[in-house]
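Dear colleagues,

As part of the handover before I leave the project, I'm documenting each prediction I ran so the next person doesn't have to rerun anything. This entry is a single chain, and its sequence is reproduced below.
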Amino acid sequence: MRRNTVFRRPQLGFTLVELLVVIAIIGILVGLLLPAVQAAREAARRMQCSNNLKQLALANANYEGAFKVYPPGRMGCDGITNSPCNNDPNFRRVGTSALVMLLPYLEQRPLYDSMDFNNGLYSLQFGMNARNQRAVEVRPPFVVCPSDTALAFIDLGTYKPATGSYAMVSGTRGANEGIGAGLKIANTGMFMYKRSFKTRDALDGTSSMLIFGEVRDGHLPEVYNIWTNGSRHESLRATLNPINTAPGAGVWTSPYGVRINGAFHSRHPGGVMFAFLDGHVSFLPDTINLTAYRALSTREGKEPIRDTEY
């Protein structure tokens, strides 16, 4: 008699328990890898930011090599009538920043040539003509740190000037003086309104002289940073407040209805990238001694600062 033989097929797939275990393992691996991936991305962004600052420092040195002086932080004056601005007519009171003057040394000659310097950028007498409106709305790669979350421009109605991630170091005089003439034309750093300096003016040494630092969220009124416009507390900032002082915090002034403190800050964890007058770039931690930090922004303060202090 013939028996019917039943062949059972082996079960395929996972049981519910096995599936849950696999999902848990994958979740753990993702949790372990994600911070490493984010850290690697931030390291790449920080390197690009450092390269941008290096370019600015080298362009500044090349400008000095060509003209024997560094460019002023702002080419003109702003309502100042005493020296060095006495007897300046309105057409010389323009807001053009030093970063604009460095364009030819940053491989940006076409952008530089597109600007109308007869009227001047941000001219108090002629306003902003169409030619310069187009120019100030350009945002070159070298003014943008990849970690910065700032919007690309500020909408001022008639035109939209581009923001930047870097500002000039004007010295230690800052928001505690409001918008006074002292911090504009008598600050302690290498960049300010109207005045130009030479390498020999950096008596504390070029390796101990901050010239450019980072700024984040330059589209916000508390931290406006228009790279083409040389303005105190904005593209010209001070070391009065500690690194990474939050917008509206620390020592601040409010001439336009918002708290502005003129501090340097970034999206990099724990500090800010700065370029020095000798061309090197360093990451200064936000735990840096405030006295040492301020000493790095003085031309002739006679403060001995060692690398180990920052």
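The chain has one domain: 16-309. The two ends are 95 Å apart (CA to CA).

All the best with the project,
I.
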